[in-house]
Structure of TIGR01906 family membrane protein:
Amino acid sequence: MTLKKAAMFIGSIISAAAIISIAVIITVNSRWLYYMDIDKLNIPQTSGISETEIIENYNYLIDYNTKFRVGEFSLPTLPSSNEGKIHFEEVRNIFLAVHFIAAAGIVLIIYSIYEAFKRKRYKMLGDTLIMTVIIPAVTGIMMAVSFEKTFVLFHKIMFRNDYWIFDPSKDPIINMLPETFFLHAAALIIILTAVIWMILLKLYLKSKEI
């Protein structure tokens, strides 16, 4: 593999990661999904926390993870352990990395579309489409087999400690974040990834018609 081909291949990987990152960013900011689950999953009843408090603390959690300038993690009405604070700091760092990946990938995606339309070079865009299918497909299959095991595996890969295993008595916020909600969020990420993929596929096919 030549240096140029290797660079194009790496660019395709980053572009595919960016597409998924964009879907993640949209999902994290889709507060309506959690609001819908508050009633659907009976979160006030199962958590023992009022709906007003749930919304206030959830909004803080999203703001903390999506804004670039924030102070120390401190929920409005709920206590947090030191381990819990460290975990959410680590989660925030991951989300910031996701934003950077998305930004870098958007530039590469635009470049690959330009290459396809103007120079009739389809490989980078084509490889991006292939990789964007593989990652969600594998994840989707794993979720279908066992979402719980996939959920645990994800945390073991992303975190070097077990601070994500909360003690509800010390970090009651975990009671308002049921596993089913994360399943719904994962499903939305896959759906959004598929939508972006179809848009790029249409552009890919269009470039070959011109």
User: Anything to note?
Assistant: The chain has one domain: 3-209. The CA atoms of residues 60 and 191 lie 26 Å apart.
